[in-house]
Design a protein that fits this description.
Distance between the termini: 44 Å
CATH topology: Alpha-Beta Plaits
Order of helices and strands: EHEEHEEH
Number of strands: 5
Oligomer: single chain
Low-confidence stretches: none
Strand content: 25-35%
Strand order of the largest sheet: 2-3-1-5-4
Structural class: alpha+beta
Radius of gyration: 15 Å
Length: 111
Amino acid sequence: MVGEIKVKPRKRYIAFQVLYDGDLSERDVLKILSSQLMKLFGEVGASKTHLWLHVYKEDSKKGLIECRHNAVQLIRASFASIFELAGKPLTIYTIGVSGTMKNAKRKYLDI
């Protein structure tokens, strides 16, 4: 249509920290998060988050997730519902939320 305005979806960047005794790769973290979102909110709910893992540092166990602005609470809820992996305690908590990737990296990940 003529004159139709397209609006970019608003994004948020969630910095997080993983507390786990074993080693976790970027792939493992993404698998844990996506499976937990599917368990809690189903396929439709998980697809609305537009989850994207940008950075995960295995040495410091910190990472950065991109999502839609209205999905921040869903992702934080999925963090809170993760308790263990392979019989070992696992905790993922939010360090902070930002509107730009640059500020999230600078403030929360020390990059």
